[in-house]
Write a structure and sequence with these properties.
The complex is a heterodimer of chains A (250) and B (607). With 250 residues, chain A is of the alpha+beta class. Helices cover 59% and strands 15% of the residues of chain A. Chain A is built from 8 helices and 8 strands. In chain A, helix 4 (75-88) runs antiparallel to helix 5, helix 6 crosses helix 8 (160-185) and helix 7 packs antiparallel against helix 8 (160-185). The radius of gyration of chain A is 23 Å and the shape is globular. The two termini of chain A are 42 Å apart. Chain B is an alpha+beta fold and 607 residues long. Chain B has 4 domains: 29-134, Immunoglobulin-like (Sandwich); 155-289; 308-435, Immunoglobulin-like, CATH 2.60.40; 490-604, Four Helix Bundle (Hemerythrin (Met), subunit A) (Up-down Bundle). In chain B, the strands form 10 sheets. In chain B, strands 1, 2, 4, 5 and 6 form a 5-stranded mixed beta sheet that branches. In chain B, strands 11, 13, 15, 16 and 17 form a 5-stranded antiparallel beta sheet that branches. A 5-stranded antiparallel beta sheet of chain B has the order 22-24-26-25-32, with no helix packed on it. The two termini of chain B are 92 Å apart. The chains are: A alpha+beta (250), B alpha+beta (607). The A-B interface holds A 22, 25-26, 29, 33, 36, 52, 55-61, 63-64, 67, 70-71, 88-89, 94, 97-98, 101-102, 104, 131-132, 135-136, 139, 142-143, 146-147, 150, 153-154, 180, 184, 187, 197 and B 200, 437-453, 455-457, 462, 466, 469-470, 473-474, 476-477, 480-481.
């Protein structure tokens, strides 16, 4: 009992601290917004980054920070922050517009050929949800599946639609978990190119033959890290090695 | 017809066996010494045609592809190995031939040098071979006519790529026309793609469709394929434009090996086969001096446009009501790098509400269209607009000022709705155009702020709650099932209640034991055990006898427990007739056995 009281107390204290902290963070956010409105982008960036350095973030914060970097001609960091914002708020139209506009500024476009494959369409469904939203949806579906199975066990005469319902929700749940895992795997595995142009080599060593190039603001997928080198995959599935300092992983 | 007698058959069999024995017993003589020979399929070849060079290794088959040195006058290509293994008259002979294709790229007499191969510590050398490369026959329709063209000695002289620039000195971002020419002298060349130009120091337009014409160089006639494009230097200094590359295929007629003319010669086009030889042509790399734009007399409105342009300004409608939109059209046309042409800066003050611009790009013009709305009816003109650019021909900055444009704004009728939202479009002109783009303004509220990298699926409380929901659902279902079974299944209900009833009986028996009431004690012991076994075995309690119980339990429990059951029942039976014949210690013993028996049956869940 004492332990429960202690836990409740700790919970209340931490909630109170977070509420206090949130007020401070919000005031910093509004201050940063004012800097932006005065076109003082570097000061605005400083304030937004200060909030993030305290260990807090929101989709709007990343969005505003992306705007600041874009206005400061730092395309890669703008794209990075828009991508981070998109992870938290994937259906924000303003964000979508700014993100696409920033991506359009990337010097080189890679032809993607798998737009219409089942896999890409299936993955695009999950792009519309954040990880937290997917977690809640999957939890609800799982509870529903268990509930329907319980009903099936309890009811002596059950309608056929109950079995169909269990099957459909089970399939949705399995597919959802698979998509969720794929999406969760991308955390810490995506990266944005920092330099104007980076030569991607066949081997992780200086002087190795260039396989292809990647350009500032381009998003790549991190496959492996080896000391100062990273094995990356471009969106057209080309794979090669680059130095770690040329990208930001997020 | 000869008859096959048993004796004849036996003789044949013996002779066959002896032959086989002799065959396998005799030593197989392998060609232990290896010989190495180099041959060509012909000693005379025309320029642009090929010969086969064969490296024969007799006596061995495990010789890997030898590395061929550079042979003057020829370009070599490995075709593959051809191995041979034969068994003749008890002798095994084996050989391997590595075949190379030599393409004649120069005219004259050339020596294929002596080739040396190392094998198992021994060195093998071939002899030299002289091959003469003669002038190629024409492949064109005039092939039978004598050509007046001077002889071209090498393949490089007969097919080559050249690029030329219209300017040798330019400014950063200036448009420089570039021409790529493929020269071919009477060679059948095929191509599937345009020349490639890659250079990080230049922005390069797409290569246009080629023109085809004849051109003579030093009296030699060439077929020319001319490709055009534009390049834009991105930085200043002396820049080298790395050469263009062009992948094409030389189609060579495969010559017949027979000495005599074939009857199929007349069906040449049908029966003749051709070989394709890939060529990767590289052009020259011209240099260009690129200067920065001058910093003197830089106009305030200069945004980087470079070229020779004209600027037109137009507005419509010019007679309107306050709040109505005006489409302001700014057209920049001329020659130059349109990528550097940005929208002229508008200084319309606070009198106009300005919307996003739309841009239309045509071949030699760029049109910016902006919607502006006069805020007051007192506005009488659109102020002048300035466009400035650097003209590389005159080497000066030029400024073109257009306007002001007079407009007439009348007051809005009060009963007219004044609803103008979004960008006004003139569908007749810009229906298919792209909308001008910029980023959308920042968000005013911080939104749902949360700790970094905190995801719900990692939250222990969330996992606990979700697990709890599932456990509760499953538990409720199991509980409901058990309750239903308890209500409907008497056997199950009796079995489930048996231990509880037995516990009560034991408690009561213990009380009787404490009171030293042997009659009551044995009565309770008998009832408890009978009730317990009746419930467990789903038997009518009143009808249970020692024999009936033992008969059923014999198959299910071991002898020890069975003996204990019998002992309790026996004691109870005896006590019924002589209740006072049992001492307290005996009663305690019976009680102990009863408790042990029920406990044992319950714990082991035997019945």
């Amino acid at each position: 009992m004492k332990k429960i009281i202690l836990l409740i107390f700790i919970g209340l204290v931490s909630t109170f601290c977070f509420a206090q902290n949130k007020n401070t963070l919000e005031s910093s956010f509004y201050l940063a917004n004012d800097f932006y409105k005065k076109a003082q982008y570097s000061q605005a960036i400083g304030k937004y980054e200060e909030i993030i350095s305290q260990g807090y973030a929101s989709a709007n914060l990343y969005y505003n920070l992306g705007n600041c970097y874009f206005k400061s001609d730092q395309l890669s960091r703008a794209i990075l922050n828009f991508a981070k914002a998109k992870r938290l708020s994937p259906r924000d139209n303003d964000l979508e517009a700014n993100f696409n506009y920033a991506k359009d500024q990337v010097q080189f476009k890679v032809n993607q050929t798998d737009f219409n494959t089942f896999k890409s369409r299936y993955e695009s469904i999950f792009d519309k949800f954040s990880l937290d939203e997917l977690t809640i949806h999957l939890a609800v579906i799982l509870s529903l599946v268990v509930l329907l199975i319980c009903l099936r066990v309890i009811l002596k005469s059950y309608p056929r639609s109950l079995i169909i319902g269990i099957s459909i929700f089970s399939i949705i749940f399995v597919l959802g978990v698979s998509g969720f895992i794929n999406k969760a795997k991308t955390i810490g595995k995506e990266a944005i190119v920092l330099d104007k142009e980076v030569a991607v080599t066949f081997e992780p060593r200086d002087g190795s033959t260039t396989h292809f190039n990647i350009y500032e603001g381009m998003k790549v997928f991190l496959l492996k890290s080896k000391q100062d080198w990273c094995k990356i995959e471009r969106s057209d599935k080309k794979i090669g090695w680059i130095k770690k300092e040329t990208i930001i992983i997020f | 017809m000869n008859k096959t007698t048993p004796h004849h058959l036996l003789t044949s069999l013996v002779s066959l066996l002896l032959s086989a024995l002799f065959f396998f017993a005799s030593p197989v003589s392998y060609a232990s010494d290896m010989t190495f020979n180099v041959t060509v399929d012909k000693r005379k070849v025309s320029l642009g045609s090929s010969i086969e060079l064969r490296l024969d290794f007799k006596g061995e088959t495990d010789i890997l592809e030898p590395k061929l040195p550079a042979i003057n006058g020829f370009d070599s290509r490995y075709l593959g190995p051809h191995s041979n293994f034969s068994f003749l008259n008890g002798k095994v002979s084996k050989s391997i031939t590595h075949v190379f294709k030599l393409l004649a790229v120069k005219e004259g007499k050339f020596i294929i040098p002596s080739l040396t191969v190392e094998h198992q510590g021994k060195s093998y050398a071939s002899g030299q071979i002289e091959v003469e490369v003669i002038k190629a026959k024409k492949y064109s329709s005039q092939s039978n006519q004598d050509s007046n063209d001077p002889a071209l000695a090498t393949l490089e002289d007969r097919v080559f790529l050249r690029i030329s620039l219209d300017k040798k000195i330019a400014y950063v971002n200036e448009k420089i026309p570039l021409t790529i020419k493929l020269y071919v002298n009477d060679l059948p060349i095929r191509y599937n793609e345009y020349p490639k130009l890659e250079n990080k120091k230049f922005l390069i337009d797409e290569v246009s469709k080629p023109l085809q014409y004849q051109e003579a160089i030093d009296g030699v006639s060439f077929q020319v394929l001319e490709f055009k494009t534009n390049i834009y230097p991105l930085s200043s200094g002396e820049l080298i434009l790395s050469g263009a590359s062009f992948a094409c295929t030389l189609v060579i007629k495969k010559e017949r090996k027979g000495r005599f003319p074939s009857v199929f010669d007349n069906f040449d086009s049908f029966f003749t086969s051709y070989e394709q030889y890939p060529l990767n042509l590289q052009s020259n790399s011209p240099a260009i001096l690129v200067n920065d734009l001058p910093s003197d007399n830089l106009p305030k409105t200069f945004t980087g446009a470079i070229g020779d342009y004209a600027f037109k300004l137009d507005a419509s409608p010019k007679d309107l009501k306050a709040g109505d939109p005006i489409t302001l059209r700014m057209t920049i046309e001329g020659e130059g790098n349109f990528k550097t042409v940005k929208q002229p800066i508008l200084n319309l003050g606070s009198n106009f509400k300005i919307y996003d611009s739309e841009v239309k790009k045509e071949k030699n013009s760029k049109i910016f269209e902006r919607v502006i709305i006069p805020r007051k009816e007192t506005i009488s003109q659109i102020p002048e607009i300035e466009f400035s650019f650097f003209n590389p021909d005159t080497k000066k900055y030029e400024v073109i000022v257009k306007g002001p444009i007079p407009i007439k704004v009348t007051k809005l009728d009060t009963d007219q709705a004044k609803v103008i939202e979004g960008v006004y479009r003139d569908p007749s002109y810009f229906d298919s155009e792209k909308i001008g783009r910029d980023i959308i303004f920042i968000k005013e509220s911080v939104g749902a702020i949360k700790p970094l990298d905190s995801y719900l699926y990692k939250n222990k409380l969330f996992i606990f709650l979700e697990s709890l929901i599932i456990i509760i659902l499953i538990s409720l279902t199991v509980l409901y099932q058990k309750t239903q079974k308890f209500k409907t299944d008497i056997r199950y209900a009796r079995k489930l209640l048996a231990p509880k009833k037995a516990k009560n009986g034991i408690r009561e028996a213990k009380v009787a034991l404490g009171a030293d009431n042997s009659e009551e004690f044995f009565n309770l012991v008998f009832k408890t055990l009978r009730q317990y076994l009746g419930d467990k075995l789903h038997l009518a309690t009143a009808g249970i006898t020692v024999d009936s119980v033992v008969k059923i339990l014999e198959k299910k429990i071991n002898n020890d427990i069975l003996e204990k059951v019998k002992k309790v029942f026996g004691a109870c039976d005896l006590a019924r007739y002589a209740p006072h014949s049992f001492a307290k210690s005996d009663m305690e013993e019976v009680f102990k056995i009863l408790v042990e028996t029920i406990d044992c049956l319950e714990r082991k869940n035997i019945i």
